[in-house]
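step: validate -> pass
step: tokenize input -> pass
step: predict -> running
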Amino acid sequence: MRIPLRYFGLISAILIVSCISAGAEEPKADSTLSRSWKKSLNAGLNISQNSYSDNWIGGEAGNIAWTALVNGTFEKQVSEIFNFRNTSNLQFGQTHQQDKTTKHWNRPLKSSDKIDLDNLGRFTLHAFVDPFVAFRFQSQFLDASYDPMKRMINPILLTESAGIARMIYQKDKDQVLSRLGFAFRENLDRAIQGTAADILDKKTKLVSTNDGGIESVTDAQYKLASNISYTGKLTIFKAVFFSKKNDFKGTPAENYWKAIDVNWESTFAASLTKLITANLYTQVIYDKEISLKGRFKETFGLGLTFKLI
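step: predict -> pass
step: emit ->
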């Protein structure tokens, strides 16, 4: 019997709860186990702006660009044999551009948009590798791919995985954790209907595609200097099945789904003062089903950062 993919997240959650219940006995008096949360939550706002008077000569146009971001890590050794960690990355930004002829401000364009919530449960057995279960939610706040019909929180990528993990390096808050396992992915997209009447009525249809395969995820947090830190995530995925493969049979894209997907994100943060931080974010993506070439994104921001926790 084949278990529907949407239930794997529930199964993973049940396994986590079962493990916590089994291992949640009180530590002995001389136990060094720390049950407190290791918490880190930072919020930032980067803004750049320039403007010109109506009689300015030269063809320049004013613009305002802003990006808000929230990064958090919450980790707890729940019991002697179970560790839970959540990492969150939220970003949203817009650019407001002025018409260089009329000097009127155009509608803002989205420049940054990201929701990434990664939950990892490790069975800390003090062996060479630890078994793990994980659930990851990825989306964006606003889908503006079709301007007349904007959709909130769309599309959604759900990833449920299980396998083995190893802490390659750990010192204070610096750590490099790598995991390898089998992952099931479900992509949910509220697709726009094709007819003019449907578009006018803003009708959408939920389209779901599934795939599964071998996944490797490596997370790194490292303090390069007293005021400079690095955070990175490298995700590599090799599909072994794809629910829509027959839709591409006989086309040049027939075997594109078999290609290895790569997503490498890096953030360098330099604290210039207590509140002012410079951030350099880069992302390299290769997904042959979307583009035959690799894609690159770079964002540099200088703005206010607030350490909430």
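step: describe -> The longest helix spans residues 8-23.
step: cleanup -> pass
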